[in-house]
Amino acid sequence: MMVQRVGLRASMAAFWRTHPAVLTGFTLLLLCNALLPLVYGSHRLIKVLDYASVFAMAFWATGLAWRRAHQEGPSAFALLGVGAALGGLRYVPTLLACPCAPWAGPLLTILGLLSLGTGFLVWPHQARMPRDRIRNTLDGIALGLSVFTAIWVALGSVEGLGNLSRGMILIYLLQVCTCVSLLALWLLQETHLEHLEQAQAKRFVRGALIFLLCHSVLTPLLRITGTYQQSYLGHGAELLNQLAIVYLALAALSPASLPQPAGELRKPASMRALIPSLAALAVLLLIAFEVFRPGGAVSKPMLGFGLALMATLMLRHGLLILDLEGLSNSLETRIEARTHELEAHHREAVNSVRVRMMAGLAAGLVHDLNNLLGILRLRLGILRETATPEQLEEVTVLQEASERAIAMTRQILMSSRQQEVVPIRLALADWMDSRRALLEATLLPGQSLSLDMEPGLDVFADPRSLDQILQNLISNARDAMGAMGTLLIRARPCSDGVAVAVQDDGPGIPPQHMATLFEPFFTTKPSGTGLGLATVQNLVHQNHGTIQVASTVNQGTTFTLTLPVPPRET
Predict the structure, then answer these.
(1) Distance of CA 94 to CAs 72, 101, 179, 442, 528, Å?
(2) C or N: which end of the chain has fewer Cβ atoms within 10 Å?
(3) In this structure, are residues 507 and 480 in contact, taking their beta carbons and an 8 Å threshold?
């Protein structure tokens, strides 16, 4: 409590510094409302002046709230302004001496409270579940109905108390229950409101509701005892209503302070959310006791209140069950997606480890094999010089086989080494244009290459790695496409950087091969090594990018590289 008092004192000191004229005006109006009732008998205009100060205060607060809603938000401040206006208009029937004044004033107060409650419901919330707002409303209804029913049962068949008839008692009871419901909503659900930087405004709204609750309780008690009109206590009770109006004005004037760090936010207590349901269950037990006790009287209103409470509870918890079911389904979907993502990362990690382990084991063998292949190539060169025309054809076949074996051993050696990556800023469109002739030379005669680069795209990548990646992908596309095939390389911006798609119109990849496409030594080519795509994936990851593949049988395959953009210069 000491922390709250210090916070309020600091807030008021800040208001005096930033809005001295406004606070001075409200203070003078409150003093008028407090002192003018003492001199009502001196002149008949004194009473009019007192009511005029109330109206000025109410509509001034309304104007401040509407300005806040229009300039800063949220729009809930406009409804708080409507509540302040109705808090002043409740005195109009009394000023005009209307016969309906005894019950019109409380009804206008109830409308003002409902406006404050609507403002709470439209205030931006941190929606944990889709139907949070509806359940919040039902919680308020359940709590207010529980209080109303409990007091109804306590009143029994009493026709009146003191100077108040039963009808007026019920009107004031409805006012008290509405105020209790709204105050409970603010206290139970305040931690779920967004705009945490407006905690000061919400604190003043909560203070206004506390003043209205005290006013709603004291007014009927003073009327029952007959001291409302006969002493100054009635005017003192009305000062509580006017203080509530001032607090609504302070809420509209409160500055938007810095939000609290996430670690310091007060978490909602789980037991608090059970208070409306527990109160409703307690009242249902009270009704059951009244119904089943010996000699107990059963009234239709009591049964109606019990049925209304049961319906509210059933609807509230039914909506909660629907939300929990939806949350469970959503959680299962997210878990499944996350599982697939983790499996994909696991496969990539395993493939990378397998490439390095198997290539490392093979590196030693390849080194010795290269020596033997070098001897073979040298001897074949000598043999070629002395070979007859008939022998020359056989020597050529042996030379081609040895050259292919040497190329395969070189690729295995390259896979066993971690290539040094030096990423730089690349203007992708210009870089691709400079490589176009080399990329086209990779294709077969009759095949064509099309570039679709969005201008102005920059990537942060190692040019040697990117060149090797594209060479491997284009070589695979060349072997897959027909003699007149078309290869498209397209670049577009995306959320994670720049997406570069390499799309061919070949026969596509069978679905059963998609999961093992990037595994080392997996190949469908008779003369392939199965290291091309594994090397591509490894190089893409070294450049902090991602690679995805999509393929449709008889339509083609698309490999999509996602490359990072250059870091912003500071």
Answers:
(1) 36, 5, 22, 95, 97
(2) C
(3) yes
Tokens 């269950």 correspond to 281
Order across the sheet with 448-453: list the strands.
Answer: 448-453, 486-494, 497-503, 556-563, 546-552
Cβ density class 69-79: b for 16+ within 10 Å, e for less: beeeebebbbb
Question: Cβ–Cβ contacts within 10 Å for residue 281, how many?
Answer: 16
From first CA to last CA, the distance across the chain in angstroms is 47
Tell me which DSSP letter residue 489 carries.
E
3-state secondary structure 358-391: HHHHHHHHHHHHHHHHHHHHHHHHHHHHHCCHHH
Residues 534 and 522: their CA atoms lie apart, in Å, by 9
Q: Beta-carbon neighbour count of residue 337 at 10 Å?
A: 10
Tokens of residue 104, six digits: 């019109």
Nearest to 33 by CA among 9, 58, 65: 58
d(CA 247, CA 235): 18
Does pTM surpass 0.85?
no
pLDDT, average across residues 214-232: 86
CA distance 297 to 313: 25
Going from the C-alpha of 171 to that of each of 96, 216, 318, 347, 499, the distances in angstroms are 21, 10, 31, 70, 67
Which structure tokens are listed for 177? 């229950």
**Averaged pLDDT, 535-545:** 86
At 452, phi and psi to the nearest 5? -130, 85
pLDDT digits (tens, 9 = 90+) for 97-155: 888 888 888 888 888 888 887 877 777 666 666 777 788 778 888 888 888 888 888 87
Number of Cβ within 10 Å of residue 292's Cβ equals: 9
What is the structure's pLDDT at 336? Answer: 87
**Helix H or strand E encompassing 460:** strand 458-461
Gyration radius of the chain over CA positions: 40
pLDDT single digits (tens) 291-341? 777 776 667 888 888 888 889 889 988 888 888 888 888 888 888 888 888
Q: Mention every residue, 6+ apart, whose C-beta is less than 8 A from residue 525.
A: 479
The alpha carbon of 193 is separated from its chain's Cα centroid by a whole number of angstroms, namely 12
Residue 356, both tokens: 């390095």
Query: For strand 486-494 and strand 448-453, is the pairing parallel, antiparallel, or unpaired?
Result: parallel
Q: What is the maximum alpha-carbon separation in the chain?
A: 141
Under a CB-based contact definition with an 8 Å cutoff, are residues 181 and 117 in contact? Answer: yes
Sign of the Cα torsion 354, 357, 359, 362 reads negative
pLDDT tens across 469-498, in order?
A: 998 899 888 888 888 889 999 999 998 899
As a whole number of angstroms, the distance between CA 516 and CA 412 comes to 19
User: What's 191's DSSP letter?
Assistant: G
Alpha helices in 195-274 (DSSP H): 199-225, 227-230, 233-253
Instruction: Check: CB of residue 116 under 8 Å from CB of residue 205.
Output: yes
What is 410-430 written as a DSSP string? Answer: HHHHHHHS------EEEEHHH
Confidence class for position 28, pLDDT limits 50, 70, 90: very high
At residue 546, the 3 state secondary structure works out as strand
